[in-house]
Amino acid sequence: QGSGKVNVIGHGGRVLALPEVGLPYEMDLQLETKGLFDYEEKLAGSMTAHPKVDGRTGEMLFFGYEMFAPFLRYHQASVSGELFKSIDIDLPAAIMMHDFGVTATRVVFMDLPVVFNLALVGSGFPFQWLDSHQSRLGIMNRSSDSDSVLWIDIDPCYVFHPLNSYDDGDKIVMDVVRYKKMMTAPGDDDYEQGSNLIRWVIDPTAGTVETTTLREIDIEFPWVNPRV
Asked: 8: closest CA among 59, 50, 61?
């Protein structure tokens, strides 16, 4: 069902409490729970805790990841809160994808090696680092109506939260908080030091990602004015 405990957003005249996986809960303006919300049964599966609202159009872009295929779905909702686009995205495995990047024209998915492990379901958090899972960034045009993701391999890492993403010509600049490695043993949530703020310059034409460290101090939950 979802917990509604990770984030909250207002969009399309609704207040939604957002989970890591599962459906969001709708609340009234006094923050009383109205019930689970699924866009009149149009939303199949989960909704991310970190949707992005376009400051120009008012559209909301989001995704949901699942433990069973299809492992990833991408969605767009109109400024009035109507779900008008849903695309199943092909992934090789069920992964924990906490957040994503959005520019004026594209979205960036992060396929990273924290992978669903059925044997850990009873532990409360069924994901674990898997060295054999290739880290990738996936670029898709916001205008796409089907799975047209271009995947580019990167070095192993994990990212919970981007700071910002924007177009620079055909390239994409994406600033994120990057962990070198995490969740390496069952029940281990003691992340390795090294949550640096780094910049990816993604070149879809060349199929490359250039990485630069912006700050070497540990950092989390970066934020940029959502209007820009």
From this structure: 50
pLDDT tens sequence across 71-100 = 999 999 999 999 999 999 999 999 999 999
CA distance 188 to 212: 28
Residue 6 and residue 27 in contact, taking contact as beta carbons nearer than 8 Å: no
| pLDDT tops 60 at residue 174 | yes
Q: How many CB atoms sit inside 10 A of residue 200's CB?
A: 24
Strands (E), 148-207: 150-153, 158-168, 171-179, 196-203
Count the residues in the chain: 228
Are 67 and 97 a contacting pair, CB within 8 Å? no
Euclidean distance between the first and the last CA atom of the chain, given in angstroms as a whole number: 32
- Taking a C-beta distance cutoff of 8 angstroms, is the pair 17, 28 a contact? no
Alpha-carbon span 179 to 157, nearest angstrom? 6
- d(Cα 199, Cα 196) in Å, to the nearest integer? 10
- Find, among 224, 99, 210, 84, the residue nearest to 166 by Cα: 224
Helices first, then strands: H and E counts in the chain: 0, 18
| Single-letter amino acid, residue 102 | V
Q: Look at residues 107, 90, 109 and name the one whose alpha carbon lies nearest to residue 98.
A: 109
